[in-house]
Amino acid sequence: MGIIEGEKKAFMTGNEAVAWAALVAGAEIMYGYPITPQNEIMQYWTRLAPKHGRKFLQTEDELSAGFTTIGGVLTGKRAFTATAGPGNVLMQEPMSMAEAMRIPTVVVVQQRGGPSTATVIYSQQEVTLTCFGGNGEGLRVVYSTSSHQELYDYTIKAFNTAWKYRFPTFVLADGYQAKMRESLVLYDPEERGIEMVPTEPFVGKPGMPGEDRPPAHLRNTYNIEEELEEVLKKDIQEYEQMAPEIIEYDEFNTDGADVLVIAHGVVFRSAAMAVRKLADEGLKVGYFRPITLRPFPQEQLRQAAAKAKQLMVVESAYGQLLKLVKDNLYGMDLPIHTHLRPGVGVTPEEVVADLRTVLEGRED
Amino acid sequence: MDIQPKMPKSWNAATKPHKFCPGCGHGLILKALGQVIDEMGIQDRVVFGCDIGCSLLSWDFFNVDTVQTHHGRTTPVMVGIKKARPDRIVIAYMGDGGGYAIGSQHLVNAATRDDKITVILVNNTVYAMTGGQMAPTTMPGQKTETTPFGRDVEQAGYPMMGPEMVAAITQEGAYVARGSVAKFRKLKEYIRKALENQIAMRGFSFVEALSTCPTNWRTNAEKTWEFVEKIMPEQYPLGELKVPVIKEG
Ligand SMILES: Cc1ncc(C[n+]2csc(CCOP(=O)(O)OP(=O)(O)O)c2C)c(N)n1
Ligand code: SF4
Ligand SMILES: [Mg+2]
């Protein structure tokens, strides 16, 4: 018998949705350290987990939360953690080890204001950190969700992506999604035909190591440059090979757009509302939304951008998505307008107003 | 040509002779551990975690499942493994810098939580891998690369008394000892008891091992031995600090 029978309509916070998603995805253990706006994931998990034989450990900090999660994953369990803001900063050390050793960790990030302690409320300022944190190349998967349904869907998906491709996988949401209540449909992945990718222990397999099987010797340190290069070459190649299989995006009205709006996460909702409103008025506006920020839907964005006259990047950060966009459009000559509100929410009205200004050619 | 004394079965023969410097204590501690693993017959149940520091050289030392972690982070990785798979016997192997400085919050909290893991911490009074800087365990007056005139406790602080601290913050079921490579048989006994304590799920178990680093101490064989055997125990008394009372029945 599944945990959820059939489709179950619910009205709950995003944090609760994450806890349910992890549960139905078969997550066996969560490790975590309190930080707002992520706390309730742990709080719901610790209420749900014992009923289903799942475990929880509250650690001494996010370094420990990340490294214990790695430990859990090494035993072949679907293990996860959740964090935000300064916690996400600490989380980067363990996740760089996960990246180096191809350990399929899952981390849910509920972005809050930054830098430093900033606000416990909301932002989109952890894009660069989550995509490229650590002293490496950003070989990780980052899903940016924009609704509670997506938080649920992508939390389930994150475990599968992580275990299939063995790259650390992040679900990147924010304080609004974490704390607001919204309706969504809960379901058991199996009933939707979603097969959970089987897990496998890295350590503690049956048999005598060195006799029945080779011992697991897992390392992240190399003696010479070429040794490291060989490992990275393989990892980068596998990352790039995986990319087309997992890249996700959404687009609307991109053909011949006077302005193509680019936004992700919860801001995408405001952007999409604004675009649809103006499109209904007959104006030539469209949108492009990257769902995977890592790997980034480069080809898809370039194709959409090629059909547009100008672009407008909208985000609750001072140019973090913008940087990704510019990077991925390198060589294309298009004006990029921006609507950047670091650490502050974006309303559809603001976007409408800015779009009108741009469309009327009134912008500076 | 093999005229080496018999090596423990749990050792990975393919990676011997090992990579530690001649006269290094790490090799002796891992020999004691290897013999204990053999004697207890637990090779197929052990998960060994090594820190970054000279302990990282042990990542392929044993024919046991091994995870090399980050500097100071071996404790949480092994705690994570133990929580998820309590039937594994986990050993967190680290230096004094890893355990007492950068990873001290993990040691303190694992000990306080009474996590059923075994920590073996190598006290060689220096940050060896990085070239002999002061460690939390550098003795008062001891010269290192960052205390070139000797450790001045007024300026650089006092040495960390690890087992004493761990003994103070753990529950009754904990096992805590300080051994030395200069007292090999005792060290082996402590390691064995620490592992037995974990298997019995009595509590946290912790062994600090006084060790040698002739490379960074810049000592010859005689001076090396004198330092570990005579001088270090003046600061770091050897013995068991906490032995669980085993209740019968
Ligand atoms: C986060 C981080 N900081 C610093 C280092 C550099 N580092 C590598 S080993 C080491 C010290 C090791 O000393 P100890 O833990 O005492 O082990 P030993 O080499 O003496 O056995 C340091 C500081 C690192 N690898 N990671
Ligand atoms: S530097 Fe010191 S601790 Fe490291 S291997 Fe050499 S002797 Fe051993
Ligand atoms: Mg040391």
Contiguous uncertain segments of 5+ residues of chain B: none
In this entry the ligands are: thiamine diphosphate, iron/sulfur cluster, magnesium ion
Count of domain modules of chain B = 1
- What's the CATH first level of the largest domain in chain A? Alpha Beta
Alpha carbon gyration radius of chain B = 17 Å
Structural write-up:
- The complex is a heterodimer of chains A (364) and B (249).
- Chain A has twelve helices and 15 strands.
- Chain A has helices spanning 14-24, 39-48, 62-74, 85-101, 127-132, 148-165, 175-179, 225-246, 265-280, 298-306, 320-328, 348-359; strands at 8-13, 29-32, 55-58, 79-83, 106-111, 141-144, 169-174, 181-186, 217-218, 249-252, 259-262, 285-290, 292-294, 310-315, 336-340.
- In chain A, helix 3 (62-74) runs parallel beside helix 4.
- In chain A, the strands form three sheets. Chain A has a seven-stranded mixed β-sheet with strand order 3-2-4-5-7-6-13, with helices on both faces.
- Chain A is of the alpha/beta class.
- Chain A is 41% helix and 20% strand.
- Chain B has 249 residues and is an alpha/beta fold.
- Chain B is globular.
- Chains A and B meet through helix 3, helix 4 and strand 9 of A and strand 2, helix 2 and helix 4 of B.
- Strand 9 (217-218) of chain A pairs parallel with strand 2 (65-68) of chain B, so a sheet runs across the interface.
- The structure holds thiamine diphosphate, iron/sulfur cluster and magnesium ion (MG).
- The site of thiamine diphosphate (TPP) has 17 residues of chain B, from helix 3 and strand 5.
